[in-house]
Amino acid sequence: MRKYLTRRGDGGRIEMEADEIIRDIEQGTQDAAERGKIARLSKSDTEHLMDIFTNPNRIVGVEPGREVVLTDDIGPFRLIIDQGNSAVGISLGNVQAIQIHERGYGMDTTTFAHFDASFKAVKPVLANVLQEFENALLNTIIPIYFCCMPNLGAYYMPDGPFPNPSDLMPIGKIKEALESQEKTVERATNDMIYISEALASIGCDGVNFDTVGAAGDGDFLATLRAVEHVKKNTNLSVQVGMASEFVLGLHGGLEYSGKRLAGMYPHQQVKVVEKAGADIFGPVVNTKSTKSVPWNLARAVTFCKACSEASNIPVHPNVGMGVGGVPMFETPPPDVVCRVSKALVEIGKADGL
Amino acid sequence: MDKEEWMRKAAQCVMDGDEDGAVELANRYLEAGLNPVEMIEEGLSEGIRKLGNLFDRGEIFLPQLIVASDAMTAAIKVLEQALPKEKKGRKLAKVVLGTIEGDLHDIGKGIVATMLRVYGFDVYDLGRDVPIAKFVEKAKEVDADVVGSSALMTSTQVGQKYLEKALREAGLREKVKTMVGGAATTEHWAKKIGADLHGEDASETVMKLKKIFG
Asked: Which ipTM did the prediction report?
């Protein structure tokens, strides 16, 4: 029986027979359907996914005419930094890295980010950030998003002023833990608004609220409130990119527009993001490193398809290390990244990536 | 009330996070002269198992899980009075847990700590940005069975490798099971650095440790 090269969710190369790939696709879509209470992939969708996996070429792409726009998550920054065991570490400034994305890569949009990439960290050095960002804007024509995380975790002790729910809850101070999160939401919302308005004043094209929900439902709520204000009061384009496939209920009772945020899956998240006025939504589906890529991608496509069908705004799923069906591996293998991209666009109905 | 009804009510008290109700039920159960082990294993534990599944699926949230765990602990305290001495206060294993030095992300690790406590492990949560030496020191101090470290970032996960080395140098490595977790880690990473186990998420961590110590 012929075997096809694919990967595990940790990036390791594996070979699977057609029957094994079909089995994993079926199980992956079933898992998403059960968790999200959404429709499984149809027979034609699974056949299409099977064709993508059994294509003998290392690199695959979408059919002509089905190309989509690309956004990035601190792509220019990735050229500059060296984390010791990942990223590129080239001696470049932010402006040159952005110009490479514009003129070298031909990206549709790109991002500018502060080294820490959290709103709280940016606030005290905002003047310096604005100066460098304005320089990038004046030297390029590509739309540039300011990419930053709400990162509510940074507002809790010992990094911030509010009592840490992770310390309070284990000692039974549930009420205090919930109150602390509510206060943090207010502070974080204000910071995001303050920074976004300053960005608008220098001609920034948009803000990419990134890794939203990483610190739970409060993180998501603060972002939604900030987005609502920013869209009503500035001309900034707004992207909201999530941190994980479902909103972690660290509070559990927070609501936006009458909807409880905790436990929301992508097709539900997009509706509140849309309501807040955002222009683009970036769903995340987490990769399970012990499962195969066919299992993970079938799952990711199932969630994204439901999200795209529910949405009235463009959906740009996150495709990268450990998300969207891409393995949890520092340099994601191109044979997988291109298959994930094709599947999310052609089956998951993504408007961009 | 028949046995099934006792167990159903015990599970429900846990699921509702009803600490007073759980304590009252446990007292009445003992007064009826029934077996406390059965209520712990088939009633209270069943409630927490069901909640664990709901938490895993995003249908209930951390505060509810903690309140439920408190209700279960309070009821167990009552039932323990009737247990033989050797079974009182028995925990599955001692787990030293922390986020590796340099990494400030401790929400996931906190959830793992909560889930482990809920399932009967004795957890020593060292917090975040924990120096390697502190893991070793605590493991020695409490005579740990498991040392678990979490890393969210690829830039910090290398600390988990250094922890393995430090435990070997302290002569503890053969005595403890080591476990790595956090978004940046995989089973492959665990094998590469010589860790015994990888926990993909809180539920898997509990499941793997229960298999060894449960």
From this structure: 0.79
